[in-house]
Design a protein that fits this description.
The complex is a heterodimer of chains A (325) and B (329).
Chain A (H helix, E strand, L loop, with lengths): L18 H10 L2 H18 L1 H8 L11 E2 L5 E2 L22 H36 L2 H16 L2 H11 L6 H12 L2 H15 L2 H8 L4 H37 L11 H8 L7 H29 L18
Antiparallel strand pairs in A: 1-2
Chain B lengths: L1 H28 L4 H6 L5 H11 L5 H13 L2 E4 L4 E4 L14 H36 L4 H15 L2 H15 L15 H35 L2 H8 L4 H28 L4 H7 L4 H10 L3 H29 L7
Antiparallel strand pairs in B: 1-2
Classes of the chains: A mainly alpha (325), B mainly alpha (329).
């Protein structure tokens, strides 16, 4: 016999229903998303373990091997596949003979570091400005709104290039790239945060918190931030691959990280002279960059669909994605 | 309508003023010594002082900015030591490299950038709208899935990877085309077109992925609307529903985005230009950055700002013209 106070026994096989768990369940059913996640995990692991793997291969990214390149033919590596051997797993760089495998790994470190770092800056700034606009009075909102408009309309790549020119050469380049990309690209996040804040502000639980005596920032931290997590994570997932492309583009143009620090974009820029003689030197960094960006994009798309199924297949409204051309 | 345009233009002017203050502040105050940069590596202190005098760098930042604005609207004079150099009305300063007027330099390079942008636009409109429509109409089929994967890959790939692979395949291996070198349209239209073919294809295909996504989603949105259902109920043929009515809903956003993209490109499609060696604004910007030629950099950034802001106004107007339901307020 059951009494009213008895809690119903959990039925076996009932799915847990927290929003995070629901999202994970939806995500799990998409093979493309899982494959992308696997690729990215592998990449992150390789990037983190780069010094270890370099030691294992017995190479380091900056040692020249003049004996491995044919100086008579302008520095083309000896042997097939860009000079791949048991010593140099993916061959060597034409001209200098530096180990390509290790340089590609270190390139991944720079790429991920800059992209993720810049995303963090963008999200933090976007949260700050968006919350201030959403919670502040009419004038604050209008002023911040105008500023956001200006930043959304700015020619991103052009300004980023210009900014790299005025900062002294001895300023650490990866940090500079993080700051430049971060400071120029927060406007999209701020728009989303503001819109979401305005919606949430009218809801009962936020009003209740205010009535209970919480101050503005306490309410923002305790009530709004958790509800903002989903849209912000979704947008950040789209920002990371965009930032990877921006870093690669700046390095390709010669205004990104400075040599000898390896970077995929900068490798592709030198690769232009080796089309015919050493195709591996073009295809390896290009393939790696392409795969990374594609995996992030597919995963970002899947995360968006998983967190908000209604949004599936719809274009982000008012959050024009930056394109680097 | 006229009131709306005036209002928007006034707003645009304000944004541009803010942008010029920002850019001016960033580039003239933050870095080292512009006089030293202008003078070059091997200048002694007296020469630097002389250059500082000539460029008016002794004055306060505010006065300098006013002079800059004066140059933009009314022109200004520079003393060159031996004589006076007059810089005509939209004066953006003199290049540190060779004392060329920045306005002149920019106008000179605009042709190459325009050739690239307009040619690419033809491709992205045709390919983008075409594939977008196709994937909207063949929903759920293999065609749609293939196109979705292609557009996803396209939006993610950096433009220079596409360009590099095209160069490698077409010029290095198949040798169908020689490596492109820029020939101005006025010099030899045929050579111009052949040499621009690869840059057009690269930039056009790159952009078309975005347009395919946009066309697809706006077509699907229009097809789901009530009036389309009514047309179908009245027995209007599917072909006519699509070409006469669905397209009408799909095209306005495409036009608006094209206007904005075209505006941004007038600041130079930096990556495409530097990959193919097209001497447009983007390449000039990069060269300016390499030589720390601040007036050139500032001039191009400001010009891009003008182009983008105007493009936004034009985009909104075109949108309203193409879709009568949009009210201009």
């Amino acid at each position: 016999m059951t009494t009213l106070t008895d809690t119903p026994a959990p039925v076996a096989g009932t799915p847990a229903t927290g929003p995070a768990r629901q999202a994970w369940r939806r995500l799990r059913t998409r093979p493309a998303a899982l494959a992308s996640a696997a690729v990215l995990l592998l990449l992150v692991a390789l990037a983190l373990a780069a010094p270890l793997l370099a030691a294992l291969a017995g190479q380091d990214p900056n040692t020249y091997h003049d004996d491995l390149v044919d100086s008579a033919r302008g520095g083309v590596p000896y042997g097939a596949f860009g000079g791949a051997s048991t010593d140099h797993w993916l061959g060597v760089e034409p001209g200098t003979g530096r180990d390509l495998f290790v340089r590609l790994l270190y390139g991944a470190r720079i790429s991920l570091l800059v992209a993720v770092g810049a995303t963090v800056v963008q999200v933090l700034l976007g949260l700050l400005v968006g919350l201030a606009a959403g919670l502040g009075n009419r004038w604050i909102d209008a002023t911040l709104g105008r500023i956001t408009d200006v930043f959304l309309a700015l020619p991103f790549l052009v300004l980023a290039i210009a900014l790299t020119a005025v900062v002294p050469r001895d300023f650490p380049r990866p940090l500079l790239l993080i700051l430049v990309i971060g400071l120029l690209g927060w406007a999209g996040t701020s728009r989303i945060v503001r819109a979401q804040t305005l919606t949430l502000k009218g809801l009962d639980f936020v009003a209740a918190s205010r009535l209970a005596g919480s101050g503005r920032w306490r309410t923002a931290r305790r009530e709004l931030l958790p509800s903002l997590a989903a849209p912000v994570i979704t947008y950040a997932a789209i920002l990371v691959p965009t930032n990877i492309v921006v870093e690669a583009s700046l390095s390709f143009l010669g205004v990104g990280v400075t040599p000898p620090t390896p970077s995929w974009g900068q490798m592709l820029s030198t690769a232009q002279t080796w089309f015919r003689a050493d195709p591996a030197y073009v295809l390896l960094p290009a393939g790696l960059l392409f795969t990374t960006v594609l995996a992030f994009t597919v995963l970002g798309d899947a995360v968006r669909t998983a967190l908000d199924p209604r949004e599936a297949g719809r274009l982000g409204v008012g959050t024009r994605k930056e394109t680097s051309r | 309508m006229t009131r709306y345009v005036l209002k928007r233009l006034a707003g645009a002017a304000l944004v541009l003023l803010a942008l010029s203050v920002l850019v001016y502040a960033l580039f003239y105050i933050a870095p080292g010594d512009p006089a030293r940069l202008a003078c070059g590596e091997r200048c002694n202190p007296e020469q630097i002082a002389q250059v500082r005098e000539q460029l008016g760098l002794n004055e306060s930042v505010f006065t300098q900015f006013l002079h800059f604005l004066q140059g933009v609207f009314a022109g200004r004079d520079y003393s060159t030591g031996t004589g006076v150099l007059h810089c005509e009305a939209p004066c953006l300063g003199l290049s540190y490299q060779n004392d060329q007027q920045v306005t002149e330099l920019v106008l000179e390079r605009l042709g190459a950038t325009a050739s690239l942008a307009l040619g690419a636009m033809v491709i992205w409109l045709v390919v983008g709208i075409g594939t977008g429509l196709l994937s909207a109409l063949r929903r759920g089929g293999l065609t749609e899935r293939t196109l979705t994967v292609l557009t996803l890959a396209g939006t993610g790939t950096p433009v220079f990877i596409l360009g590099l692979l095209l160069l490698m395949a077409v010029c290095a291996y198949l040798q169908w085309l020689p490596f492109p070198t820029y020939v101005p349209l006025g010099e030899d239209p045929e050579q111009w077109a052949w040499n621009m073919l690869l840059p057009w294809l690269t930039l056009g295909f790159f952009e078309s992925a975005k347009y395919a996504r946009l066309t697809r989603s706006s077509t699907l949105e229009t097809l789901a609307e009530d009036h389309i259902r009514t047309f179908r109920a009245y027995g209007v043929g599917e072909r006519s529903v699509v070409t006469r009515h669905a397209l009408r809903g799909a095209v306005p956003p495409v036009i608006a985005l094209s206007a904005i993209d075209l505006g941004t490109m007038f600041g130079g499609a930096v990556l495409t230009e530097s990959l193919f060696g097209i001497p447009g604004l983007g390449k000039t910007l990069i060269d300016g950055v390499r030589h720390v030629d601040l007036p050139v950099v500032v001039g191009i950034v400001l010009l891009t700002g003008v182009a983008v802001v105007l493009a936004n106004v034009v985009a909104d107007l075109l949108y309203a013209l193409a879709d009568r339901r949009v009210a201009l307020t």
